[in-house]
Design a protein that fits this description.
The complex is a heterotrimer of chains A (332), B (271) and C (322).
Chain A: E1 12-24, E2 30-42, E3 46-50, H1 57-64, E4 72-81, E5 84-85, H2 91-97, E6 102-105, H3 109-112, H4 119-130, H5 135-148, H6 154-157, H7 166-178, E7 184-188, H8 196-213, E8 216-221, H9 224-230, E9 233-238, E10 241-247, H10 248-253, H11 258-265, H12 306-310, E11 317-318, E12 324-325
Parallel strand pairs in A: 3-8, 3-9, 6-7, 7-8
Antiparallel strand pairs in A: 1-2, 1-4, 4-5, 9-10, 10-12, 11-12
Chain B: E1 4-18, E2 24-38, E3 42-46, H1 53-60, E4 68-73, E5 76-77, H2 83-90, E6 93-96, H3 110-121, H4 126-139, H5 156-168, E7 174-178, H6 186-203, E8 206-211, H7 214-220, E9 223-228, E10 231-236, H8 238-243, H9 248-265
Parallel strand pairs in B: 3-8, 3-9, 6-7, 7-8
Antiparallel strand pairs in B: 1-2, 1-4, 4-5, 9-10
Helix pairs in contact in B: 3-4, 3-5, 4-5
Chain C: H1 2-28, H2 35-39, H3 45-54, H4 61-74, E1 79-80, E2 85-86, H5 87-122, H6 127-141, H7 144-158, H8 176-215, H9 217-224, H10 229-254, H11 256-266, H12 272-282, H13 285-313, H14 315-321
Antiparallel strand pairs in C: 1-2
Classes of the chains: A alpha/beta (332), B alpha/beta (271), C mainly alpha (322).
């Protein structure tokens, strides 16, 4: 996953170049949600996008599926999926792509399901949207998929959303997302509304399904622990930019960007028992409307130097292997 | 100071779910729950949704009446008091809800939200109320310029701090916090956790912390109680519950939390 | 089934309460059928009193009510002084005519509202949406009476449509198809008038419900799985908005009578409207009570129908009643 390596062009499954997305703010003015994003994903990878609120991770996920709200403007950049330029494709073409080639799995299973339709029917409608099959065949496929996600009993197919638990509803959403065997799954915080044990179950399920079908996954989350568990490569976002990227194990073992390091340290673990202060990053994420010169993280950074306030650190500094870090004074 | 501030004995809460067509089913939200917290200490109650932990919190702060059992605050049994005599106790303990659902009036400005309890209790002039509110906001780390902001312009972390400030304005001795970390970014969770620790040190506050994040509970609590289906199935010091859980249910919770947490420290990406 | 039983019991109770209420109110109103006759110097007071006694008007209020209930149970629902017939036989054929007029008008209104509302909601902010909004607002503001009179004038001047009534004079004995054609011709203008009156409100509701459904998370999710726009509209959004729309259907049923009253009078449609007016002016109290009960019953049936539809459509409501 190497933005500048053009030799990897033919390998690229998904390539994002120079993507800048803004939202029109209510008071006139624009919120820059994504600033000059460069990203390449290889087929078969499980890439994590780690970022907190305002980092732009959800905007990135929505842009890849062309599901941005009307108030969003793609200011520049391109998103190439295989040979298709997603930003230039027509809505009709995108309808064919969504669900069949790129699927989005969202975070709130409760509101993502139609309350007056049976869940089996909702999965079947996805099948129907992408093929000309008879109702019988599409029903069978839907049933099979529900079985794959652990809802194989007859009563599950005919159940209405309100009869299912949060975890079960998310399983239905997973079934909908994967029933047409898309090659790319974008999972946007799929477990954030679930409690820990259910969360673990859903992640296990995702892991298994993705391993079986060799689906490429982009897993978006604010929880470093979840991202660490599931992914092979990771991209860390802050205030609309990618601040660090590399293999998950390496980044977690020795983060180079101060934000990543701070974030990883602030998660309580067994070593934190005893009512001592948790290490934390002071301050709050920046206001995305005003963009001052210099690094967006600089006000909160303990490693800041004079250069940091003056100009934005360059796109990505070429670090050994395929690590990148957008920092003038990186760690290590 | 090892005085017991809060003692709950055999607390039971049964809800009658009255359906139309006259059928009523019973829901036992709390079954003979007993616990005690000493002054200045923190008790964390862990549980999943449906375990009864929120019901417990609401019963203790007198938002709901328990079906049976006793709630003793500083030696007095609150369940035996009538409304009038209960009044002074209500200000001694306060509830802090999750910021986003803390029933913050969207039309009130920052300081007005915090001053609301003072207005309801009619304590002090409008000027005094405002200055107390501003003081509390400062105490929780909210800058002065947020005092005039409307809630929808505040971030999740700021809303949570506002909810805490509002709870502090009446100088309570006990704070009951119901899922204050849920929905917040990881780095903000750490900030709020540190805030709570600091407030406790400065004001010797007592906390009843209801969460479903085991690791956060371990970092903040003197004692952990694990709830399942309305009952406390295990309790002990954090080191005990997290490293050597006795009950099956606790073990599964810990495995999930640890199995996931330890990966943060170790390095394997794909398991 | 338990549900249905509950509602039927409720309905009966309500009807009884309404009958009592209207009875009392009517008697409180000054004057009665015989007031005018009383003024006629040629008829002695004794005869008037005898007439009153015959109809039980000299008895106490509860006793009169009792008489009425007995008559109701017999199927007569009281007696019309003006027409000299039991009330039920008088109003029954008119109920049918009113129902015919209103059902046709309501069905067409709903059909257009659904289609147009869905179409506009799928293109929010587009020219179709804005044009429809302006158009329906205008329709909403114009009083029904104006439409009725305008159409009547058109009918009289151009002779394209009959100027009132339900059936042409030469139609008895004609073939069914030409009878139907004749009926349609007579129906056209009154239906159009009522339709133009009810359509704006329905359209507004359909459009906003659909717009809300189309903006809801599950529709966004469905689009995320690649469902086409039409699939989303009809297979996802429409079932989801059925609830408030079904409730609206129930309510519009109930407003039936008041809506068509005026129109029936202007177009001389032989429904409940003209006879209600007549009876009010003439204080033919039992007819009035009868018509009030009928309209209440229609409202109740409409709501009941809507509730049953709601039960059938929404699984969450079914779960509550299990």
């Amino acid at each position: 996953m190497f933005p500048l390596d053009l030799s990897a062009e033919h390998d690229a499954f998904l390539r994002v170049c120079g993507l800048t997305v803004q939202y029109r703010a209510e008071r006139g003015g624009a919120v820059t949600a994504l600033r000059d994003i460069n990203l390449a994903i290889r087929e078969g990878e499980i890439v994590g996008v780690l970022g907190e609120s305002g980092s732009g991770k959800s905007t990135l996920a929505l842009t890849l599926c062309r599901l941005l709200p009307a108030s969003a403007d793609v200011r520049s950049g391109s998103v190439r999926f295989r040979n298709l330029d997603l930003l230039k494709a027509s809505e009709r073409e995108m309808e064919g792509v969504r669900g069949a080639q790129i699927s989005l799995l969202g975070q709130d299973p409760t509101s993502a399901l139609n309350p007056v339709l049976r869940v089996g029917e909702q999965v079947r409608q996805v099948v129907q949207a992408h093929s000309q099959e008879s109702p019988m065949t599409s029903r069978e496929r839907a049933r099979y998929m529900l079985q794959q996600v652990g809802l194989g009993e007859a009563r599950h197919y005919d159940a209405y959303p309100h009869q299912l638990s949060g975890g079960q509803k998310q399983r239905v959403a997973i079934a909908q997302a994967l029933v047409c065997s898309p090659s790319f799954l974008v999972a946007d915080e799929p477990t954030s509304s679930l409690d820990p044990i259910t969360q673990a179950g859903i992640l296990d399920l995702l892991q298994r399904l993705v391993d079986d079908s060799k689906t490429t996954v982009m897993f978006v989350s604010h929880d470093p622990v979840l991202v660490g568990r599931l992914t092979t490569r990771i991209v860390v976002m802050y205030a609309g930019s990618i601040v660090e990227s590399g293999r998950t194990s390496e980044v977690y073992a020795s983060a180079r960007h101060p934000y990543t390091a701070g974030l990883l340290r602030s998660r309580p673990t067994l070593g934190h028992l005893g009512k001592r202060d948790l290490p934390c990053i002071p301050g709050v994420p920046p206001d995305l409307v005003r963009h001052s010169a210099g690094c967006a993280f600089e006000p909160r950074c303990e490693r800041r130097i004079a250069e940091c306030a003056r100009s934005d650190p360059p796109e990505s500094l070429n670090v050994a292997g395929d690590r990148t870090a957008r920092c003038f004074n990186e760690i290590g | 100071m090892d005085e017991t501030l809060l003692q709950v004995c055999e607390l039971t809460k049964v809800y009658a779910d009255r359906r139309p067509a006259g059928r009523t089913t019973e829901v036992r939200a709390l079954r003979e729950v007993s616990l005690a917290i000493a002054r200045g200490r923190t008790l964390a109650v862990i549980g999943e949704s449906g375990s009864g932990k929120s019901t417990l919190a609401r019963c203790i702060v007198q938002l709901e009446a328990p079906t049976s059992g006793q709630i003793c605050f500083a030696g007095t049994d609150l369940t035996r008091l009538d409304k009038r005599r209960l009044q002074p106790f209500r200000t001694r303990m306060q509830l802090v809800l999750q910021g986003s659902s803390a029933a913050i009036n969207p039309g009130f400005r920052g300081w007005e939200v915090v001053a609301e309890p003072l207005r309801i209790q009619k304590s002090g002039s409008a000027e005094e109320q405002r200055s107390t509110a501003l003081q509390c906001m400062q105490q929780v780390g909210l800058q002065a310029d947020l005092a005039e902001r409307l809630p929808h312009r505040l971030s999740g972390g700021q809303l949570q701090r506002l909810a805490i400030a509002r709870a502090l304005v009446l100088n309570p001795e006990l704070l009951v916090l119901d899922e204050p970390f849920t929905g917040l970014d990881v780095s903000i969770q750490a900030q709020i956790a540190n805030l709570l620790l600091a407030l406790q040190r400065e004001g010797s506050l007592t906390y009843l912390l209801v969460v479903h994040d085991l690791m956060m509970a371990g970092a903040l609590a003197d004692e952990i109680a694990v709830m399942q289906d309305g009952q406390i199935v295990e309790r002990g010091i954090p080191a005990g519950v997290l490293m050597t859980p006795q009950q099956e249910y606790t073990r599964s919770l810990v495995t999930v939390a640890r199995g996931v947490a330890s990966t943060g420290a170790s390095t394997t990406g794909s398991l | 089934m338990r549900y249905l039983f509950h509602r039927v019991v409720q309905a009966v109770v309500v009807l009884v309460a309404i009958s009592i209420l209207s009875f009392v109110l009517l008697h409180l109103a000054p004057g009665e059928f015989f007031s005018e006759i009383r003024l006629n110097p040629q008829i002695s007071l004794a005869s008037v009193d005898a007439l009153r006694a015959q109809y039980g008007l000299d008895r106490s209020l509860p006793a009169q009510y009792g008489l009425w209930v007995r008559s109701a149970l017999k199927g007569d629902f009281g007696y019309s002084f003006a027409y000299n017939r039991p009330v039920s036989s008088l109003i029954w054929p008119r109920v049918r005519n009113t129902l015919l007029l209103n059902t046709v008008a309501l069905t067409l209104s709903w059909l257009f509202a659904l289609l147009l509302g869905a179409w506009a909601a799928a293109r929010p902010g587009g020219w179709e949406d804005r044009l429809s909004a302006v158009g329906t607002s205008t329709l909403f503001v114009v009083p029904d009476l104006m439409f009725a009179l305008a159409f009547l004038m058109v009918a009289v001047r151009t002779r394209w449509f009959p100027a009132g009534g339900m059936m042409s004079l030469d139609m008895t004995g004609a073939t069914t198809s030409s009878q139907l054609r004749d009926l349609s011709a007579h129906l056209f203008l009154p239906v159009l008038t009522i339709g133009l009156g009810t359509f704006p409100v329905l359209y507004r509701h359909v459009r906003s419900a659909m717009a809300e459904a189309l903006a809801s998370p599950f529709v966004r999710a469905a689009r995320g799985y690649g469902l086409r726009r039409n699939q989303v509209l009809f297979r996802q959004a429409l079932p989801a908005v059925a609830n408030p729309l079904i409730s609206l259907l129930g309510i519009s049923f109930g407003l039936l009578l008041s809506t068509s009253l005026l129109v029936e009078i202007v177009f001389s449609w032989p429904g409940l409207g003209p006879i209600l007016l007549e009876s009010i002016l003439g204080r033919d109290i039992y007819v009035i009570v009868g018509i009030v009960i009928v309209s209440a019953a229609l409202a109740i049936i409409g709501n009941l129908f809507a509730d049953v539809l709601l039960y059938w459509n929404d699984p969450r409501i079914r779960a509550e009643w299990r």
